[in-house]
Amino acid sequence: MFPISRKVWGFAVGDVCGTGPEAAALTGLARHSLRLLAREGRSPVSVVERLNQAVLEEGELVGDAGRFITLLYGEVEPRPDGSAQLVMVCAGHPLPLILRTDGSVRAAANPQPLLGVLPDPTLYAEDVELGAGEVLLVYTDGGDTRSSIQWHELLDLLKASDVTVYAIGMLEHQSQSTKLQQRITIQQMAETTGGQAFFPSTVKDLDKVYEKVLAEIRAQYTVGFHSTNEKTDGTWRKVEVKVTRKDLRVRSRRGYFAPYKK
User: Fold this and answer.
1) How far apart are the first and last CA of the chain?
2) Fewer CB within 10 A of the terminal residue: the chain, N end or C end?
3) What digits encode the pLDDT tens for the residues 56-104?
4) What is the Cα–Cα distance from 18 to 24, expressed in whole angstroms?
5) Cα separation of 214 and 149, whole Å?
6) For the packed helices 151-160 and 176-192, what is the interaxial angle rounded to 10 degrees?
């Protein structure tokens, strides 16, 4: 996710064909191209069309015409009332889902051609209205082949952000050691932001997970306080929220970064 303007954010999730250095190079091409193209003021369709051209051109240069990408690219404009306007293009990627406040789930886009195959694919943008308290679920069956930041840097970004992460890990196909490590990683990402991680055993369990996420969002409270520490040193300050009722459990952000001034 990245800023396009003061009001609009871009987001993307995708998967590339293959593994190893070739896949990493293609991932890097997509990541940097999306940010550059979006900040030029192009429409979402134009951004994805130009990326498709770049993937085809890259394949011709390296003599590999079988490289392709699945991509969900979107732009979101949050509103003061908690709702948001989204514009998305889903090019061969698993469809995003909307979790409505009534518990219903529906696809938020339609399938379109993947990138790197056709020179002139027919692509179109889809407008989606996301109401306050509703959730857009995006996911991938691919792995991280080219992280641009270290793990500790990711945790710092999550701590500094205003997002709450609800993560779903389908880990049953992994080895026991890999499953344990990935479970710890996913849990830490979610719990750092006051969110929660879920690890369903089968696809059939996903509906129950979605219901739990919606219930969590409906039950959220916003609590604020004024710190007496006036230092502007940018340090991490821990915050712990406690409740007196023993039958309640609180999930919250674990702190915040103080303002920083030289």
Assistant:
1) 28
2) C
3) 888 777 666 667 888 899 999 999 888 899 999 999 888 888 888 887 8
4) 9
5) 31
6) 30
